Amino acid sequence: MPAQKNKDIKSAYDLLQIISRDEKARMIYEARQAEIHDQLTRLHSAHQKGKFEGKAEGLEEAKVNFARLMLSEGEDIVKIVNYTGLSREEIEKL
């Protein structure tokens, strides 16, 4: 039996045996596992949100850099607004 060969598996197996006999212990264990799962889900969501916001910041920076380049080339502000999606006021501040 693998549980006899690996110390960690044996410990987990022993815990499972104890929990499966005691309904209250099982409920506590399941609640704890649910909490761990929820925390991991929140962390994953926060990580994904951070990646998305980072990409959005990078996009905004690229728009500003492109607008600056167009301004340096003497392009019309209306054209820059259309190409970048930045507001006229944002471009005028550049």
How would you describe what is shown here?
The protein is mostly helical. The chain is about 90% helix and about 0% strand. Helix 3 (about 25-70) runs antiparallel to helix 4. The mean pLDDT is about 80.
Task: Give a topology summary.
Elements: H1 2-5, H2 7-21, H3 23-72, H4 77-84, H5 88-93
- The number of strands is 0
- What spatial form do the alpha-carbon principal axes imply? rod-shaped
Give the number of domains: 1
Low-confidence stretches: none
Instruction: Estimate the strand proportion.
Output: under 5%
Structure annotation, total helices: 5
- Helical proportion, percent range: over 70%
Radius of gyration over all CA atoms, rounded: 28 Å
Give the overall average pLDDT.
Answer: 82
Notable characteristics:
about 90 residues; 5 helices; about 90% helix; mainly alpha
Provide a short characterization of the protein structure:
By secondary structure, the chain is mainly alpha-helical.
